[in-house]
Amino acid sequence: MRKVTLMLLIVSMIASSFLLDTRVAEASAPFSDMPNTGQATIERLVKDGILVGNPDGTLRPHEQVTRAEAVTMIGRALKLNGTQRATKFSDVPANHYASGYIATGTDMGLIAGTSATTFSPRDSVTRAQMAVFLQRAFNLNQTRQDVIYRDVNPSTFGANAINAITTAGISVGYPDGSFKPNSGTTRLEYILFLGRALYADMKLPEYKPNPDVLDQFATKAVVFNAPSGLNVRSGPGTEHASIGRLANGAEVNYYNVIGNWAAFTYNGDIAYVSLSYLRTPSTGGSGSLAGKTIVVDAGHGGHDPGAVAASNGLREKDFNLAVALKLQRRLEAAGARVIMTRTTDVFLTLTERANIANRNSADAFISIHANAGPSSAHGSETYWNRNHASADSKRLAESIQSEMIAKLNTRNRGVKEGNFTVIQTSRMASVLVEVGFLSNAEEARKLASNSFQEDAAEAIFQGTVKFFR
Fold this sequence. Notes:
six-stranded mixed β-sheet; alpha/beta; 34% helix
């Protein structure tokens, strides 16, 4: 009988994996496989009863942490109720080692399941999920405008949380300026992140943006029409103090926008200038579009995201708007009267978009989109419709398509006639531009790049200028 009892105990201990044993093991640090980095954090978490090793005395630092393990550690750190009990998830029974922490964390809104009825406790935690866990657990709300990773955009899951843990000194991403939001989180990474969240003396030095990444995402502009120079302010608004002044013609490379204010680096700090006094440099020539009314339509918006890239989460509506706003500034700098169908994330029907152009007797209507199809599909294409101003529509499409292929070096999928409502209903020269494919991983990476978006806007702009010559 004693042998049976002993065997059951051994099996129970083996089944308890990393961080799962609810007891704090005596003398569990250092572990037999103690890593070279993070030893102080590991020892402190063990001392505080938050980190418990495996029964065989190992830490297994390079294995990926599971969702149940991550929640258990956060539960211990926050001293939540970990009493095993029923949860709302079918895959977390009451006798699951983490059921108490999962139930408490769910009730408090700190965590969520992978669906309404499942938690997927054995799944590994992605780095984006880890960021969300920590943001909620430690109420991290402060963010910075210059936190930019080359593989994180506003539509990336956990983007705000990634910014928040960076601002809080918990992570700075990888040396190449990436964060790898969809990669798994190792146990050592999670230990280090949690230690920095818990202990102020273990936080990282203040985040410094990767210069190469800032340059990749920066929008290049110059100051213009500022009578006495352009005030540089400490915050996004005139209520913030002026900390400097830029002369007309001065270059500004900004990497974020809040309302009508552009964020950029000034004397090593984040500063802001009004977008009203910035224009995008262009080779189109000042006044080349004077007297022309052009409607720029950023496709989709609001509850309609359009296509979504599986590889990086980029939503078509966000890409369309980014390019449309960049195109707007170029057209206005060339003297055009530009009417935007939308400048924010709102929804308009297809008919409403065309009606805006018709009501304003526009000289041209340009609808911007990103494509979707098989993962192998790639390239740029431009559509026109013969219903109204057919000859001009086709010529505008050809002019823009030619510039896109030359500027973007994408596959030339050609100029095609299409029956899209926005170009079928608009009564002037009208085109629908498909810049690239979100369904193609390589092209989606380019579409998410600010520099590629700038090039796309420049190509559409140059094609428009040539059409009106």
